[in-house]
Design goal:
- It contains 7 helices and 6 strands.
- By secondary structure, it is α+β, with helices and mostly antiparallel strands.
- Among the domains are: 123 residues, no CATH class; 36 residues.
- Strands 1-4-3-2-6-5 form a 6-stranded mixed β-sheet, with helices on one face.
Length: 302
């Protein structure tokens, strides 16, 4: 009864092995094709939220993942530092204008150009943290310098930098200064109601003065409008009288011009009258001479 089952068992085992090989080739083919480069970074601050398998990104582009997280402790000093092991996929990186360095030189070349690692918050809701790689030349970095793997220096995260800035603030001194300031301001605070009352009184006075000035200004504007209306009316009357006067003056000038003109009618009449007076004067002078010679002429006539 057991003999017929042997071929079935053998075929089942061969099929399982075939499926296992196919699964390995299918799911691990990309990993085999994309060679991974191990790197390491050290952080002297908390890495809360960082998990194994967290993405390693370069400006938001996934280029690897976190493989392990550990702690290194110096037994002599008691100081500790966080060690984060990561793997990069160099096939996701392309260098333009130059050939891509070998895998063993890739990390050192990028670090030489300023590549650093920083912990960044993925989401405020989940609190998960990832590792962000970026070129930050000139920044102050943390380099442990004692690792068998290529090390990428780390820089403080945004929250870590803020925490360090807050740690440098002397809270006790700030509170003492604030207390002394409040103590010195207490007399001024007691006088504040009086100052506010005086300020309110001043505002009321200003309001009344503005109202009075507004009324006076309105009266002045009304008087100015009335004066402008009267001036307009008087100007019209004066202009009419001036036109009449100018007309009369024009007529008088025309008459004077006619009187003065030697060829005018008046001048001819005057000249005629003068000639007549001259002729009459000559006759009277002639008559006077005759009477003077012969008085009887007055009796005899001519």
């Amino acid at each position: 009864m057991n003999a017929p089952r042997a071929p079935l068992i053998g075929s089942f085992i061969l099929g399982a092995l075939a499926l296992l090989v196919a699964g390995v080739l299918f799911f691990g083919g990309s990993a085999l094709r994309n060679q991974r480069v191990p790197i390491i970074s050290f952080f002297d601050a908390s890495v809360a939220g960082l998990r194994v398998g967290a993405p390693v990104t370069f400006r938001g582009v996934p280029v690897g993942e976190v493989k392990s997280i550990g702690v290194r402790v110096n037994p002599r000093t008691g100081q500790s530092i966080i060690q984060v092991n990561m793997e990069l996929v160099p096939r996701t990186l392309t260098v333009y204008g130059a050939p891509l360095p070998r895998d063993d030189e890739l990390v050192s070349s990028l670090v030489h150009d300023g590549l650093t690692a920083q912990l960044v918050l993925q989401s405020f809701v989940t609190g998960l943290v990832s590792v962000e790689l970026a070129f930050r030349p000139g920044e102050r970095v943390l380099r442990f310098g004692d690792a068998t793997l290529p090390e990428v220096p780390s820089v403080p995260g945004h929250f870590e930098a803020l925490t360090k800035q807050l740690e440098t603030i002397d809270i006790a001194a700030v509170l003492d200064t604030l207390q002394r300031t409040l103590t010195a301001a207490q007399p001024s605070l007691h006088q504040l109601p009086r100052v506010l009352t005086s300020f309110e009184h001043t505002l009321g006075t200003i309001d009344r003065e503005v109202s009075a000035s507004s009324a006076s200004l309105q009266q002045t504007l009304g008087a100015a409008r009335t004066l402008a209306t009267n001036l307009d009316r008087e100007s019209a009357t004066t202009l009419a009288a001036m036109r009449q006067t100018l007309g009369k003056a024009d007529a008088t000038l025309d008459g004077a011009h006619e009187l003065v003109d030697p060829h005018g009618h008046t001048a001819m009449q005057v000249r005629r009258a003068i000639d007549d007076l001259a002729a009459t004067s000559a006759r009277l002078r002639n008559l006077a001479e005759r009477v003077d010679r012969d008085p009887s002429v007055l009796v005899r006539g001519r």
